[in-house]
Amino acid sequence: MRILFATVSEKSHLFTMVPLAWSLAAAGHEVHVASNPALTASIKSTGLTAVPVGKDHNLHEMLTENRDSLENPLSDWSTPELDRHSWEQVLMKFKVSVMFAYQTYNDCMVHELVDYARHWQPDLVIWDPVTYAGPVAARVVGAAHARLLWCIDIYAKMREVFLARLAEQPEERREDPMADWLGGILGRYGHTFDEEVVVGQWTIDQIPTSLQLPLSLRRVPVRYLPHNGPSEIPDWLREAPERPRVVLTSGVSARAALGGTFMPVADMINTLGSMDIDVVAALPPEEVEALEKVPANTRIVDFVPLHALLPGASVLIHHGGFGSWGTALVNGVPQLIPTIRYADWWNKGTSLHEAGAGLVVHASELTAEVLRESVERLVEDASYREAAERLREENQRTPTPHDVVPVIEELTAEHGR
């Protein structure tokens, strides 16, 4: 088969695709990865074949300019529940997301992606959950298509809420920003909109079932395998820590997309530095420069592959990004997530809290006392490690990317041209 992966130019989104892409390639399928030109070098660094399409999006610039207003009721998708949203509320959320996020991500690449799909004729398109150009291209050429999830599925769940409220409205009040936008693009190619374009013909889900939202979609669970890009193991990682190792990362992708972190990193380093622990903090140069001093128990690094660092860790502190969250799950490490209600960050934190494997706190409420008490709880209370270990075991029982290749082949034959 010819399989086209489609993602917007976000390195963290690409990295979640790499293990499955290579598993499909190793099974004898042709695999190409299409994205905005800005991601071309990153795709090539994985050894996969890159297809640059369209122009680069400017969403990062928009988010950076408006980062102080990112957390607001119009962009808060953290509670995708019917009883939490009126028709007016959920309609406005979709209007804002379509106008400021989905169109910005996709309109600059969708037509060239369609052109490439017409040229290459893929049998299957596997798309990132915000890369709606993927299902559009698949529909135009008659290919099967599936979402590959790296998130708690707030996107499909909120769509369920939207459709339920839409069905309650009289005809004259009905409107659908997603259908209007995607239907308009599809209409240019002689096709019409339906819900498959929003949620895929099936969903390849890297989230453990026990942590995922309940949905009626066709779901193919797959084990998350961390991919950190080109990296090396530093010598000091060969030595076991003498005290509990607490790892802090402010999030490479979040910093790039939002122009910084929402965590009070300098204050956190000061607090952690006063505790009887060993600290490894992955920080960019600008955050290191803002530190008054580096405590004696703290090692500052620019980058260390988390899949190599976390096996010896007692706690991971991060903002809620999938790479950090998923890699901690793989290694059975309890997590502390100081975050905001943006994307699915808050949902990742609450899912761990409910599973007993971590704690979540709003970044604005992370005082020195809260940080100290949270880390002490996660280190000293064995129940957190035990719950994290149960999640690790659940992930280990989930089929690997290699294991799901035959399932993907069958579903492609079922849904394709």
TrEMBL record:
InterPro entries: EryCIII-like_C, EryCIII-like_N, Glycosyl_450act, Glycosyltransferase_28, UDP_glucos_trans. It comes from the Bacteria. Keywords: Antibiotic biosynthesis, Glycosyltransferase, Transferase. GO terms for biological process: antibiotic biosynthetic process. GO terms for molecular function: hexosyltransferase activity; UDP-glycosyltransferase activity. Residues 22-251 form the Erythromycin biosynthesis protein CIII-like N-terminal domain. Gene3D superfamilies: Glycogen Phosphorylase B (3.40.50.2000). CDD domains: GT1_Gtf-like. Residues 268-411 form the Erythromycin biosynthesis protein CIII-like C-terminal domain. It holds the Pfam family EryCIII-like_C. Belongs to the glycosyltransferase 28 family. This is Aclacinomycin-T 2-deoxy-L-fucose transferase.
